[in-house]
Amino acid sequence: MNIAHYILNDVTPLTVNDKVKEAQLVFNQLTFSHIPIMQEGVYLGCLSETDSHCFDAAKTIDEYRYALEQFFVRTQTNWIDVLEAFAQNSTNVMPILNEKNDYVGYYELNDIINIFNDTPFLHELGSVLVVEKGMKDYSFSEISQIVESNNARLLGAFISKTENDVVQVTIKLNNAGLNEIVQSFRRYSYNIVSEFAEDSYMQNLKERSDYLDKYLNI
Predict the structure, then answer these.
(1) Could you tell me which CATH class the domain 4-116 is placed in?
(2) Which of 3, 87, 143, 212 lies at 20 to 30 Å from 188 by C-alpha?
(3) Mutual orientation of helices 197-216 and 178-187 as an angle, nearest 10°?
(4) What pTM does this model have?
(5) Cα maximum dimension of the chain
(6) In which residue ranges of the chain is pLDDT below 70?
């Protein structure tokens, strides 16, 4: 997916020669968490809003260059990696450099999130199922096979948690045969982290049936 049309240039980066007060004024006017800082046309890093309000407003940004956060993405970086860069750096502004390290603009977090919102994983109607299995035992090919063998359609899947050699995978699928899919995952030794109402209902019926069998066999 080409996201070049989301590149923005309506806010001019500050320079190391600007006063901290100028950065404070920018942050007061905008909702940016960071602002890019340049020196003679070269991108140095970003100054955070939190830091700017802790510094002496009368001093230049150059005196605080040690505090600049040096994150950025490239013009060719795909949108999912851009979204990851936003998350890793706790920012809502992401500077963009080309292959020559020239600053070309920035992305805003909301624009990239909107791209994610338009993907089938979130946009199409369906259900979310969270399953877990040992890190060495699960595979996405097996997960796909389980879903598709039950005549369902996989809309997306990603690893949502890893802990103690156990992987949780969040799956988005259409609503065809949810209970059959859940039971299939159990047969393949996946633990179901999230349960659907239909699945819980079937479990309750099974428990009552087992209890009735024990009662009749007394």
Answers:
(1) alpha beta
(2) 212
(3) 70
(4) 0.68
(5) 88
(6) 1, 121, 176, 195-218
Buried residues in 104-130 as b, exposed as e (16+ CB within 10 A): ebbbbbebbeeeeeeeebeeeebbebe
DSSP letter assigned to residue 122: H
**Positive or negative: CA dihedral 25, 27, 28, 30:** positive
CATH tag, 122-216:
3.30.70.260
What crossing angle do the helices spanning 140-149 and 178-187 adopt, rounded to 10°? 140
Q: Walk across the sheet containing 191-192 and list its strands.
A: 154-163, 166-173, 127-134, 191-192
Own/partner pairs for 144-149, CB < 8 Å, 24+ apart? 146/181, 146/184, 146/185, 146/188, 146/190, 147/171, 147/173, 147/181, 149/184
Both tokens assigned to 82: 């851009």
pLDDT digit string, tens, across residues 133-183: 999 999 999 999 999 999 888 888 888 889 999 999 989 888 767 888 999
Query: Distance (Å, rounded) from C-alpha 199 to C-alpha 66?
Result: 55
- As a whole number of angstroms, the distance between CA 191 and CA 207 comes to 18
What are the residue ranges spanned by the domains of the chain?
4-116, 122-216
Partners of 105 in the β-ladder? 96
Distance CA 133, CA 215 (A): 35
